[in-house]
Amino acid sequence: MYLVENSDEVLYHxxxxxxxxxxxxxxxxxxxxxxxxxxxxxxRIKKVxxxxxxxxxxxxxxxxxxxxxxxxxxGFWPSILGLWAYAILPIIVNTVKGIENVDEEMVEAARGMxxxxxxxxxxxxxxxxxxxxxxxxxxxIVLVIGTAYxxxxxxxxxxxxxxxxxxxxxxxxxxxxxxxxGALLAIGADLSLSRIERYLxxxxxxxxxxxxx
Length: 213
What we know:
By secondary structure, the protein is mostly helical. It contains ten helices and no strands.
């Protein structure tokens, strides 16, 4: 079996794939959470932030990768830029919605007790919004795992190298060997994160109406 006979090669590309996912997702979180908090407090910033997220989802990932090519060249970091742009929207949308949906009476009561906006955000809004925020993170991670296969088109690492190489060589065993680890990673991540989400009090994910809002 190709997967067993070439386990070292599969593991090498799997590590590259996982590295892409982790770095892109951390970069998305580092941008999306603070930007969403600002967006909740400023309508103009909200339009910009949500617009940026929507653009990242609307433009095909390959197009984003192609745009990154003249700026960053080939390899790891251009791939991260494309995946980052694709990862931010679910996090932004759910963070904004989660904070905005916190009961306004609780916020006003806290403000009446003398709490500052930052204290209200830290102690009330973010904890109550956490299940919704985490649902967005879960969706983002699963999307990035699948999208990371495209990184090979601009010289990025990952399982896409095996899949596309197998297609070009008409080697379907290689294609399957590259596809199975990514599918298992996506399923495993989704199941694990859904358990954490249920523990946090979430409802299992974001629906289409939330993403479109």
